[in-house]
Amino acid sequence: MKDKTVEIVINILLPIVSLIIALVAIFQTKKQIELSNKQHLFDRRLEKYIIVKDLLSLYSENREIIVDREDLIRCVECQFSGLTNVSYLTDMIFAINEPLKSDKQNVFLSKCEMLEKYAVEISLLWDNDIGQIFSEFVKTYKELLNKLYKQRVCISLIDNYNKGEIYSTGIKQNSTVTDKQMLDNAKRMKLFETINEIDRIYNRIINENLEQKLIDDLKL
Fold first, then answer.
1. Which residue, 142, 143, 176, 177, has fewest beta-carbon neighbours within 10 Å?
2. Nearest-angstrom CA–CA distance, 17 and 208
């Protein structure tokens, strides 16, 4: 009778113990998945933070030769070179040096698309106002590069036209006319408005110490 009672108890406890073991295993698996997801999120945020930090640094270093500089209508190479002086953007400089070459333009466009993608990822990885601000900064940074490139194309076309005129007629186009054409192009694509916008975002990031807030959100 005693043996039978023990057997009944064992038969009752065995499923319970098995259930407890299974629940513990599920809990541990869930915790591992949560930790893995957090680590993955941290890695992705860290990658994008480094990009944000790079772009903020590049803009800061070149701000004085970009903001309130009307001579950008005639020459943009120095500013563009400074803004792309980082390993993953440096190929863009070939486009500014040879703006009418299609292969160089394709490289430039692919880098612009990459920055646009980064801007979207930042807004998703930091789903708050801070993320939106830095997303806008990266997006506007891309727009600035794009408009500097377009201005360089305009300068190159005008220069080529002038060379043709000199060759065929021996007469160089009046510099005032040339400057007006370049200024009209800059106004048409709102180059200076874009510079003012990125500078506004940059000043807000600096004045409100938003980079530190981004770092705080970076932590697990």
1. 176
2. 56
Quote the pTM value: 0.83
- Residue carrying the six token digits 């801007």: 119
Helix (H) or strand (E) holding 13: helix 2-62
Contact 41, 122 (CB under 8 A): no
> Do 125 and 48 meet the contact criterion of CB atoms below 8 Å apart?
yes
Q: Please tell me the distance from the alpha carbon of residue 207 to that of residue 210, in angstroms, as a whole number.
A: 8
CA dist., res. 183 & res. 135, Å (int): 29
Query: Residue 173 has what DSSP assignment?
Result: P
One-character DSSP codes across 61-128: HHGGGTTT-GGGGT--HHHHHHHT-STTTGGGHHHHHSTT-HHHHHHHHHHHHHHHHHHHHHHHHS-S
**Polymer length of the chain:** 220
Amino acid type, 134: F
Contact yes or no for 95/108 (Cβ under 8 A): yes
In degrees, to the nearest 5, what angle opens at C-alpha 79 toward C-alphas 165 and 52?
A: 145
Where residue 209 falls among pLDDT bands split at 50, 70, 90?
very high
pLDDT in tens, 93-122: 999 988 888 888 999 999 999 999 999 999
Q: Is the pLDDT of residue 167 over 50?
A: no
